[in-house]
Design a protein that fits this description.
9 strands; alpha/beta; UDP-N-acetylmuramoyl-L-alanine:D-glutamate ligase
Length: about 280
Amino acid sequence: MSNEPEIPIALTIAGSDSGGGAGIQADLKTFSALGVYGASVITALTAQNTQGVTGIHDTPPDFITAQIDAVFDDLDIKAVKIGMVSQPDAIAAIVKGLTRWKPAHVVLDPVMVASSGDKLLAPDAIDLLRTQLIPCVQIITPNLPEAAALLDVPVAASEAEVEAQGRKLLTLGCQAVLIKGGHGQGPESTDYLVTADSALRLSAPRIRTENTHGTGCTLSSAVAAGLAKGQSREDAVRIAKAYVSAAIAAADRLRVGKGHGPVHHFHAFENSRGR
């Protein structure tokens, strides 16, 4: 038997992006870049590229269940990231799976709209997201519009409003809320990690680029990767923020597609080769 330590394993439960920039593909790239083995449960197939989404084919809920059980029955899952779950039946299957297997760390990215503006969540699924799925997870990572949509309120326009919305989201049953500030204005992109007893402000220079496809998926999966490696919640969020900021800064070097291109998940490896 090998004396090598076991690699930490994280699971992504999300939709497939045929263009490779977001969803399952972005999550697995992020896990690999951060030294975590990635497993996957595919909730939907999307026909999309850097210019938009042209079709969604949902995975039958019983097959979502089969994927969840197959992965947990064999692999030592340290953390789970949940992304696109567009239908109520899919949410129900995931909730039952989480209840059955009880993973220690679950990060939910409440994906409602793609970077291109295409809606990815059925309206009747939003209430189930609030009432059934969020109480099963430890951290949710909405952007400013998603946080407002979950609460059915206007988008926060000040730091005080962001913190207030974060605290209101905590009442839905999660332990922490990471509200992403990428949709905000100003020279800095500021995220807010809100818990019952603290509010942490995380800022990075706002980078001017059109290539931001998959940033939300990447951040949430980076947080899950950190938790899978045993990092504290705060450290996992800080390291994930730094990783995503660097991936956005390097995005223009990829030149992928004609629309909103992906971030550069493997920027650190490119730099190590001296390119």
